[in-house]
């Protein structure tokens, strides 16, 4: 096939690709007007990288360690250079020429469009009709399904929250699946090239939870398709296809070897890995505290099980009935607010003499409308009424066996999203399926379910075209589809209050915070009425859209309209259905000027006061919020707390079990030199504005390093954490007996006249000077992490062993005299990863280029 012919084949697809770019741009017009979405998760992530970015400006590369959060953690978990991943970096560079989040939705549609073209081309129905009209319809329907996937409400809510890596993983997932399908259908080279490229980009997205679920779904497809191929006598084709996928997938994965290697190593040390604590300790989590300090850690109870705690992992679980949100968006209230002046809530507030403007603001933004099973949501996972109607129609009409795979995958993803509400399935998966218990917030599988619902919807309409079905042949399938979707919507519109109470046990406590115990009951009646009205309105809305879609199919099947009208009309219906709901939760009003994006990190007087201290390194404890779930402090200071999905396990356990009982001493050993506190206000004064936080100096902080007089060996982690609840670290340190070899022959310790201080601070290279008349044991206010392997200690340039002390800190023996002590973070896996990345990316480019050349020679091009 010559180049001209190839370009001619690509031309009609390019028009749809441009259409995708236009559609995403229209939805996010403010992105071209100097505005951005606040994206809370992105802001939190950015705050944690300030220290690293400053050092990169000075040195040209990111340090491998940061002290900005959790008193220290590997920097490659928050900001890291991958210099040899030039495939992913090149694609990122090009996509970043398009404003974010326009590029997110654009690539999502392109990737899904490719998958739907692949699925449609392999259909038995498609083989019966290879006419130009069928090819055109396939493109239109692929575009319709691509829009349905990209504009599913779950994905838009993820964009609004700033879950960018998750959205990128969703975006590339269809492309991976497209390559797998092609390879097993015998189109080995083009399938291999697509698989390799999209696997590389899927890992570049850096959201392993989505990738993990995708891997499970690919395994299901290979199993189902493999059985069918063996039965059909296509074992050779199956073997060659699997061999190609192994090669392509391996290259794609290897292109991010460094990322996979460091993640695999790091997760073992985090709350997702195995704890050394036993139930003897963990059972005491809710026991009485001897401290007046409140610690909000928001992390799972530690157990000896490998992986997350089940309750923590399933904390966000979709309710069984809540799955009806796929069909009716605000059946369970949506998110917060969404009401207007016609609402009963607004009227009730005005009747209570609330200022009308304040009443409207509460109705629009603050009313607790959501009443589902989750702790809270930004909105529903609305798949689309038109989409679900077409999906059911596809199951009844299509003869493509892939429809069963699409059904199984969609149902499985929805079931996993139900987490603790469907434990007969998710319990065994959590306990026995490898890696399943490493992830939390299983509700994200609702976003993946959208992919399979969209693909199934396209199959049904494509079957009508290719099989040239008459209306008589469509009557029964249409009736079934309409009844299971439109009928359900109509029943819920009329009888919703018969099936649901529209309230939760939390309603009264939440409303009482605003209106008191007496006012809460009155406001609850208004709230329930508004919830019922919202559900009823959206139920009728879904019914209308389903009726319009059914009507369009009727007109097309009866030849009253032609394809040139039908396909754009169907696409328009899909766009309108989803856009109208999406805009409730993510619209132009969510954008703010770029200059205001980091306004949450404006320097306060407390920050300014602390920043006058130019000491090399100290830490700050912010008591004004949930310090273990916020990176604001990290924007300005080295923080005791922070925000990250994978905290170091031992540090989390220290904060969880010991910090509430021994707050001051643990703060001292972490070099917590300052605390940011909210000053107490005069209880007798009226209508006070909240006072600005102030900085408070902790004169007892032990500094960067100190010598101790007593070493207390303990038997295990339980004994070590127990000791931390009472330990005074100024003179004593606790050490696990596994480090006893480093303590052999230790003399009686006398710290008289001994000094040690930090003389040079680089996050991954710390230098100290010590001077002591006798041998000492020094404790350093730095987190112990893979000691003598990744973090290495040097005494006057010679590598020396060091130990873990006080559950999380570093310690080492220091001989008498003057010495230079260095700690260098030198993880061998980083250099190995860079080498593997370089080799794999070179091979990946060669493989893709060779595959494209071979497939083009054989006319193996998707038309």
What does this structure look like?
The protein is built from 30 helices and 18 strands. A hairpin with a 3-residue loop joins strand 16 (803-805) and strand 17. The strands form 6 sheets. The chain has a 5-stranded antiparallel β-sheet with strand order 11-12-18-14-15, with no helix packed on it. It is an alpha+beta fold.
Query: How many β-strands, per DSSP?
Result: 18
Q: Indicate the mean pLDDT.
A: 90
What would you call the shape? globular
Structural class: alpha+beta
Helix content: 40-55%
- Counted by DSSP, the helix tally is 30
Cα Rg: 30 Å
Low-confidence stretches: 123-130, 286-299
Largest sheet: 5 strands, antiparallel
Cα end-to-end separation:
13 Å
Please state roughly what percent of the residues sit in beta strands, choosing from under 5%, 5-15%, 15-25%, 25-35%, 35-45% or over 45%.
5-15%
Strand order of the largest sheet: 11-12-18-14-15
Quickly describe the structure.
The chain is of the alpha+beta class.
Helices and strands in order:
Blueprint: H1 3-27, E1 35-36, H2 40-48, H3 50-59, E2 65-66, E3 73-74, H4 86-95, H5 102-121, H6 124-128, H7 132-150, H8 153-161, H9 164-184, H10 188-205, H11 208-231, H12 235-254, H13 257-267, H14 279-282, H15 310-313, H16 344-351, H17 356-366, H18 385-397, H19 402-417, H20 423-432, H21 445-467, H22 471-499, H23 507-557, H24 563-585, E4 592-593, H25 605-611, E5 619-622, H26 632-636, H27 649-658, H28 663-669, E6 672-677, E7 694-697, E8 705-707, E9 710-714, H29 717-724, E10 732-736, E11 755-762, E12 765-772, E13 776-783, E14 791-795, E15 798-800, E16 803-805, E17 809-814, E18 817-825, H30 828-857
Parallel strand pairs: 5-6, 9-10
Antiparallel strand pairs: 1-4, 2-3, 6-7, 8-13, 11-12, 12-18, 13-17, 14-15, 14-18, 16-17
């Amino acid at each position: 096939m010559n180049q001209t012919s190839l370009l001619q084949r690509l031309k009609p697809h390019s028009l749809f690709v441009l259409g995708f770019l236009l559609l995403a741009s229209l939805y996010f017009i403010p992105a071209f007007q100097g505005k951005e979405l606040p994206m809370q998760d992105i802001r939190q992530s950015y705050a944690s990288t300030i220290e690293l970015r400053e050092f990169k400006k000075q040195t040209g590369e990111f340090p491998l360690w940061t002290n900005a959060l959790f008193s220290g953690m590997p920097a490659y978990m928050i900001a890291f250079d991958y210099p040899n991943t030039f495939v992913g970096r090149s694609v990122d560079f090009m996509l970043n020429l398009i404003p974010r989040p326009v590029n997110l939705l654009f690539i999502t549609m392109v990737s899904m469009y490719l998958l739907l073209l692949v699925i449609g081309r392999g259909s038995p129905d498609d083989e019966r009709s290879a006419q130009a009209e069928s090819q055109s319809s396939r493109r239109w329907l692929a575009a319709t399904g691509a829009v349905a996937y990209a504009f599913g409400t779950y994905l838009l809510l993820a964009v609004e929250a700033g879950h960018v890596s998750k959205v990128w993983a969703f975006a590339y997932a269809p492309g991976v699946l497209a390559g797998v399908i092609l390879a097993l259908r015998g189109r080995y080279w083009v399938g291999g090239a697509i698989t390799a490229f999209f696997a590389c980009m899927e890992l570049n997205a850096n959201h392993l939870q989505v990738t993990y679920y995708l891997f499970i779904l690919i395994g299901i497809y290979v199993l189902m398709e493999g059985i069918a191929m063996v039965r059909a006598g296509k074992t050779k084709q199956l073997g060659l296809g699997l061999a190609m996928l192994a090669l392509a997938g391996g290259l794609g994965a290897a292109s991010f070897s460094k990322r996979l290697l460091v993640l695999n190593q790091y997760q073992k040390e985090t709350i997702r890995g195995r704890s050394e604590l036993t139930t003897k300790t963990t059972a005491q989590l809710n026991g009485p505290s001897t401290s007046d300090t409140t610690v909000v850690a928001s992390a799972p109870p530690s157990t000896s099980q490998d992986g997350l705690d089940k309750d923590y992992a399933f904390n966000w679980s979709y309710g069984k009935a809540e799955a009806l949100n796929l069909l009716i968006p605000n059946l369970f209230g949506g998110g917060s607010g969404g009401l207007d002046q016609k609402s009963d809530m607004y009227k009730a507030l005005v009747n209570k003499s609330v200022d009308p403007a304040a009443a409207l603001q509460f109705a629009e933004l603050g009313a607790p409308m959501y009443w589902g099973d989750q702790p809270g949501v930004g909105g529903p996972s609305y798949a689309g009424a038109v989409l679900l109607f077409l999906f059911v129609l596809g199951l009844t009409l299509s003869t493509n066996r892939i429809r069963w795979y699409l059904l199984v995958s969609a149902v499985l993803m929805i079931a996993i999203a139900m987490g603790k509400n469907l434990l007969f399935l998710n319990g065994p998966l959590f306990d026995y399926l490898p890696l399943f218990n490493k992830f939390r917030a299983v509700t994200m599988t609702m976003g993946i379910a959208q992919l399979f619902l969209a693909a199934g919807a396209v199959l049904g309409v494509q079957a009508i075209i290719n099989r040239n079905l008459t209306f008589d042949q469509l009557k029964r399938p249409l009736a079934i589809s309409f009844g299971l979707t439109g009928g359900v919507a109509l029943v819920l519109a009329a009888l919703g209050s018969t099936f649901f109470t529209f309230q939760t046990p939390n309603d009264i406590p939440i409303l009482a915070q605003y209106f008191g115990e007496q006012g809460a009951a009155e406001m609850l009646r208004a709230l329930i009425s508004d919830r019922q009205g919202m559900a009823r309105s959206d139920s009728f809305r879904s019914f209308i859209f389903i009726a319009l879609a059914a009507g369009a199919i009727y007109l097309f099947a009866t030849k009253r309209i032609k394809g040139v009208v039908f396909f754009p009309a169907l696409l328009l219906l899909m766009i309108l259905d989803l856009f109208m709901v999406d805009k409730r939760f993510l619209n132009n009003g969510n954008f703010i000027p770029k200059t205001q994006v980091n306004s949450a990190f404006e320097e306060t007087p407390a920050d300014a006061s602390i920043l006058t201290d130019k000491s090399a390194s100290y830490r700050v404890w912010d008591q004004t919020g949930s310090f273990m779930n916020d990176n604001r402090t990290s924007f300005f200071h080295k923080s005791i707390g922070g925000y990250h999905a994978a905290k170091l396990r031992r540090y989390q356990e220290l904060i969880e079990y010991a910090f509430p009982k021994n707050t001051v001493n643990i703060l001292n050993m972490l070099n917590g030199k300052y605390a940011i506190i909210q000053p107490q206000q005069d209880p007798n004064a009226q209508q006070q504005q909240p006072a600005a936080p102030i900085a408070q100096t902790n004169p007892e902080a032990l500094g960067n390093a100190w010598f101790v007089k007593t070493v207390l060996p303990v038997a295990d982690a339980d004994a070590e954490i127990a000791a931390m609840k009472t330990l005074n670290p100024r003179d004593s340190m606790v050490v696990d007996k596994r480090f006893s070899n480093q303590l052999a022959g230790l003399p009686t310790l006398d710290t008289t006249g001994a000094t040690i201080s930090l003389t040079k601070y680089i996050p991954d290279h710390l230098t100290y000077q010590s001077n002591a008349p006798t041998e000492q044991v020094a404790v350093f206010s730095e987190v112990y992490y893979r000691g003598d392997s990744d973090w290495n200690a040097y005494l006057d340039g010679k590598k020396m062993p060091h130990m873990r002390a006080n559950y999380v800190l570093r310690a080492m023996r220091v001989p008498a005299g003057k010495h230079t002590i260095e700690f260098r973070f030198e993880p061998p896996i980083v250099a190995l990863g860079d080498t593997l990345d370089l080799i794999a990316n070179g091979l990946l480019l060669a493989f893709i280029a060779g595959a494209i050349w071979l497939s083009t020679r054989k006319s193996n091009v998707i038309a």
